[in-house]
Amino acid sequence: MRITVVIPTYNEAENLPKLVSALFILPLDLRILVVDDASPDGTGAIADELAKQNPRVRVIHRAGKEGLRSAYLTGFRIALDDGAEAVAQMDADFSHDPVKLVEMASRLENCDLVIGSRYIQGGAVDENWPLWRKSLSAFGNYYSRAILRLPQSDVTAGFRLWRRETLKGMPLQRVHSNGYVFQVEMTYLAHCLDYTIGEIPVYFPDRQKGKSKMSFAIQAEAALRVWVVWWSYRDLRKAGKSARNVISQK
Fold first, then answer.
1. Could you point out which of 2, 13, 18, 211 has its C-alpha 20 to 30 Å from the C-alpha of 58?
2. What is the torsion angle, in degrees rounded to the nearest 10, for the CA atoms of residue 182, residue 95, residue 47 and residue 34?
3. Residue 46's pLDDT is what?
4. In the beta sheet, which residues pair with residue 200?
């Protein structure tokens, strides 16, 4: 299975070369697509150098911080156009263990989407996180699941592997959430279209290099955005098992 790993970057100069090296030692047929939002720390230039060294690395440079949604949607489109049979999403800061991609690829044989979950048996978050951070993360996930009635354990997770056919069957032009609610909306859309979603346990450590981009303001905005997601897909909820037919007719 040819897998393209889409990695959005902003100020990940310390992490990106190590991550690329870690990915290419895996027993997988991988391509890497870096989508850099004009990182002032030189991440884009480092990515270009990595691409010169290895033709399996491709870099997309953007004019500024355009957000997670557009980074991934751009990456998905390019990966599919380039012939990817599966597309992975992952962060550049090693909060997602590259080795887990092997297990995810195996699980994808029986699923349309595989999520690396912190909240199923065997998964966990960094034990050194302060209580408020653990609580905020767990509540944000529970809140989204409860409103959207999603059966998955970790709907805010950003470590994912999609089948080509799944992404091509989803109306990505309808996805408008940014930040981590992008992950929630993508999960909900896949769920509404009755795609099979599997989860594998992952450990989510704190980043070792660079600065986290999460904030309370982002979490608060996300809480409101979940309701917009719920309303936006009411046509698919009503259609139930026929939701894919609704999409194909539009």
1. 211
2. -30
3. 98
4. 116
